[in-house]
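Final report, Chapter 2: Outcomes

The project's central promise was a pipeline that accepts a single protein chain and returns its three-dimensional structure in a standardized token representation, suitable for archiving and comparison. That pipeline is now operational. To close this chapter, we reproduce one record exactly as it appears in the project archive, with the input sequence first and the structure output second.
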Amino acid sequence: MPDTQAAAPDARQTLRQLIRQRRQSLSQDEQQAAAQQLVARFKEHPEILAAKRIALYLANDGELNPLPAIHWLWARQKEVYLPVLHPFTPGHLLFQRYTATSPMLRNRFGIPEPELDMSQVVPHSMLDIICTPLVAFDAAGNRLGMGGGYYDRTLASWHEHRLGPLPLGLAHDCQQVDAVPKEQWDVPLPQILTPTRCWDFSRLDEA
């Protein structure tokens, strides 16, 4: 069967629920240890070390917490950006500068984001790296998100033309699965960082 055949919606949703429960079951100590291990991954990642502007996220629903990594980036005078739901274009994201004094609010999904200030927003093409959250991933770099398609739309130019910021997935090791059911609009990631390793899938594209 061709790869473009739609995956069964129930298969994706079942997997989504399973892996969300798996990461939610991590203890607070395990979450804190994973967050510190992510800082270690950042310290040895060439693209992160070279980047000036990096988009991240604030953890929700048991996601790998990048906040210690954000503090490390701030200490290195790197600019950090967070996604903000686009106020006029449903399903799309804006990326706004995030500092220790940014006014914050919760969006309609209950996720913290900076209070919208267009003077602090940059086109995502001006970012060097976009670190994306995800629910599940496999050994081919396929990513299963929460189902809204926000990051797939953001990364479409990378997927089609390798243009724009480097997409870098962040996940707990327990979020790896044998195979992610794919849809034609899904954007595979070239790299994924977990607390214990950096997965580099770019060589798969060249094979």
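Archive annotation: The chain has one domain: 9-206.
This record, like all others produced under the grant, will remain available to the consortium after the project formally closes.
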